[in-house]
Amino acid sequence: MCGFVGVVGRRDVAPEIYVALQALQHRGQDSAGIATMSATGDRFPVRRGLGVVTSAIDEVHLAALAGPIGVGHVRYPTIGRGVLEDAQPFFYRQPGVLMAHNGNVTNYDELRMALRDRSIHLLSKCDVEPALCVLSDALMQRRPAAHTIEDAIWALGQMGERVRGSYSIVAALMLEDRPTLVVVRDPNGIRPAVVGRRSDGSWIAASESVALDALGYQRFREPEPGEALFLRAGDDPVAVPLTPARPAPCVFEFIYFARPDSVMEGRTVYDVRLALGSELAKRLRDKGIQGDVVVPVPDTARPAATTLSEDLRLPLREGFIKNRYSGRTFIMPDAPVRHAALRLKLNTLPSEVRGRRVILVDDSIVRGATLQRVISLLREGQAAEVHLAIHSPPVAYPCFYGIDMSTEEELFACRFSGSLDDLEAHAAAALGADSLTYLPVDGMDRAFAGPRCAACFDGRYPQPVDARERDSIVSDRRADRSLARG
Questions:
Q1: Rounded distance between C-alpha atoms, residue 289 and residue 388, angstroms
Q2: Are 33 and 57 in contact (CB under 8 A)?
Q3: Is the pLDDT assigned to residue 486 strictly greater than 50?
Q4: Taking a C-beta distance cutoff of 8 angstroms, is the pair 207, 3 a contact?
Q5: Total tally of structural domains belonging to the chain
Q6: pLDDT digits (tens, 9 = 90+) for 388-445
Q7: Which of 2, 126, 133, 453 is catalytic?
Q8: What are phi and psi of 373, to 5 degrees?
């Protein structure tokens, strides 16, 4: 999972991209980068670094990033590693294209070999690089210079035919001698993207609307699945459908990853999480779970915990104080680091849990180690009972579209078999909870109506991933985790 920003205006855009990336920092803390292009298209300064935005990019870097158009990125890796050569954005010299993306290109190895046959060699294991090379190569096949929007439409069509998986892409290049920002989504629109405009004629494209809010842009619209938008300062956008749309937005964005104040698919993430909490309350009531207090695991679970407590007529309390300077444990590279980060991240408020039956609300269980530690913290705080309530279904299938759930042996729910009730009973015992209640898939669908990708919950993959691609992705993740463990 990553976050991208692209801006085109009439003055240097790097400072704006820098601010917008900080609004998207929750989407990746592994590396950050900004690249710009001069108004004449002959300079492409790029600055990338490891860590969060403020660590990776400093004032000296920003001063060197001149140009009225540029792209930025924050990353955590699902293909490739957390090393500098895999950090985005990427640049290709012919004809001169900057690119960043969010998603997961599943046929990376196939693209790498096909490009090698044309003597085009990749410099990283980041999956956006082959997409960039395919697009740039197609543009050069069309004509050697002075490319037009029509050339770009044809080249994007070639890229769409060859690149599989999930992707929302932003690119900057010269088209018809004008700096042009291009944003494109895969035919399923699995990963989010949104476009905004400002009264001075500037345009922005980003992974989430919070990046627009930070800079005073008005939300224009989201690119449709399979659509490309061409953006130029002061002009109306040019919208081109590249492939038939088969919408399947990722539901896990709404459950966990996106910021609650983001607007996606015409609804706020916060409203969806409120609805998930109400659906979860119904299941707790049906199961006869009794509690004295509702406690959310900070911070994603708070909206669902709010409606759950209201519907069950139980007080909502902060059982944990969160260290605001710690990172998101789900995107930490391995279990020991996640455990250490959690000890730094959360501290219990014993006065709110001592002697009480606690209904502990969280968004999901992926590997289970974090929640096991959270429950032990409540036990240390002398909670009388701990009833775990999860506002999503069991994560039972790997994600191949950009969420770090690539191998079945990592998934907590895959350790158990039987009905949902059986799974909940055995999983509760493994976590040290008195009970565990998941939100079933039909409850999730009532809260999040309409088309969606929920492959991690129901095993229905909207974009086919063949066995070779799956094996490549899984082996890549296993190798990287082995390296992280040292």
A1: 10
A2: yes
A3: no
A4: yes
A5: 2
A6: 999 999 999 999 998 887 688 889 999 999 999 999 999 999 999 999 999 999 999 9
A7: 2
A8: -70, -40
Q: Do 283 and 239 reside in the same domain of the chain?
A: no
User: Quick one: pLDDT at residue 485?
Assistant: 41
pLDDT in tens, 104-115: 999 999 999 999
Q: How far is Cα 415 from Cα 417, in angstroms, rounded to an integer? A: 7
DSSP E strand stretches across 313-434: 320-322, 346-348, 357-362, 385-390
User: What are the φ and ψ backbone dihedral angles of 378, each rounded to 5 degrees?
Assistant: -65, -40
Q: What residue numbers bound the domain in which 206 lies?
A: 2-248
369 burial via Cβ count (<10 Å: 0-12, 13-18, 19+): middle
Helix-strand-coil split of the chain, %, nearest 5: 40, 25, 40
Q: What is the mean pLDDT of residues 307-318?
A: 98
Inside any domain, residue 470: no
The answer as to whether 336 is a domain residue is yes
49 within domain boundaries: yes
Q: Does residue 423 form part of some domain?
A: yes
Write the DSSP string, 150-219.
HHHHHHHHHHHHH--EEEEEEEEEEETTEEEEEEEE-TT--S--EEEE-TTS-EEEESSTHHHHHHTPEE
Task: Let me know if 2 is a catalytic residue.
Answer: yes
